[in-house]
Design a protein that fits this description.
Glutaredoxin; 41% helix; 5 strands; 5-stranded mixed sheet; 4 helices; alpha/beta; single chain
Amino acid sequence: MIVNFWASWCTPCREEFPLFEARLAALGPSDGLRIVGVLYKDEAPLAQQFLDDLGAAWPTLDDPDGTLAAAYRVVAPPQTYFIDPDGVLRAIQIGQVQEADFDAQYAKIAP
């Protein structure tokens, strides 16, 4: 599982979404990859427009009071957590996930 904290006003978030979409399409069916987005300090209508524009194929949770962000100790978006099939956090990516980053971090959680 990948948990990605993002915001509509975050340019790196917008830039990494296509990578997540491509990896989910490629790995999801065979490896069971799941992605969950968490909205970080953003307004729901702006976030929905962002999702509509980019066509995210994964669920996004609203975190209006910042409870999830505090629990995950989010510094700023994008911040991404790579969790293995046993529920163990194996990697944290602070900042935009590039292809090489994704591959290195995903290797730590792949089944």
